[in-house]
Amino acid sequence: MIFWWQGRGFLTLLIVVASAIIVGMIADAAHWRSWAPLFWAGLLLVAAPVNWLIGVRLNAKRRGYAPPTLLRRFLYRAPHKFMSLPMESWSIVMVVAAAAFALQSVLVR
Length: 109
Prior knowledge:
Layout: E1 5-6, H1 11-29, H2 37-58, H3 60-63, H4 70-74, E2 81-82, E3 85-86, H5 89-108
Helix pairs in contact: 1-2, 2-5
């Protein structure tokens, strides 16, 4: 798989990998099946706020103090991007994916 980033956008991928390791260790200690959809939902729910905080902090100077609109808030010329989206915008993608995994675990049972 090909990943591209700009500035420190690679941190988004590292945050997800670090969250996978941490949540995996907790799941292993609790004898919880790490392949369950709730594992992936938990992993993304741990990664999303961390990624949001780091992304907002890194991209704060570029965002400036313009009146925020929804489009301007999440799609702007940020110096730190991962796959053409600002770092903090990926947190929304993570939360939506976590909701999909949680819904899948409920519907499969």
